[in-house]
């Protein structure tokens, strides 16, 4: 449970960084996302999840990131 809470905290820190570093650029980017078709957003989200799952699997495999 401690690891899960730590990971959620890390995700929130990483998600917040662009808003702190460049809020104007994030506003422009979010406006562009708002006009994208839902099927494209779904595909981008699926690709991001697949890459994240692959990274998690590689990290858990012995010796990959040692």
Q: Please state the overall shape, judged from the principal axes of the Cα atoms.
A: extended
The major beta sheet can be summarized as: none
Strand tally: 0
Query: Which stretches are low in confidence, meaning pLDDT under 50 for 5 or more residues running?
Result: none
Share in β-strands: under 5%
SS summary, helix count = 3
> How large, in whole angstroms, is the Cα Rg?
16 Å
How far is the N terminus from the C terminus? 24 Å
Overall pLDDT:
92
The portion of residues assigned to helices is over 70%
Q: Which structural class should the secondary elements be placed in?
A: mainly alpha
Order of helices and strands: HHH
Structural description of this entry:
This protein has 66 residues and is an all-alpha fold. The protein contains three helices and no strands. The chain has helices spanning 2-21, 23-34, 38-60. It is extended. The chain starts with a helix and ends in a 6-residue tail after the last helix.
What can be said about this structure in brief?
This protein is an all-alpha fold.
SSE blueprint and pairings:
Elements: H1 2-21, H2 23-34, H3 38-60
Helix pairs in contact: 1-2
């Amino acid at each position: 449970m401690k690891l899960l809470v730590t990971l959620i905290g890390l995700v929130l820190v990483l998600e917040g960084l662009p808003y702190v570093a460049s809020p104007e650029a994030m506003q422009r980017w979010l406006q562009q996302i708002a006009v994208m078709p839902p099927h494209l957003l779904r595909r981008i989200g699926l690709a991001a999840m697949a890459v994240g799952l692959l990274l998690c699997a590689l990290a858990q495999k012995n010796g990959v990131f040692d």
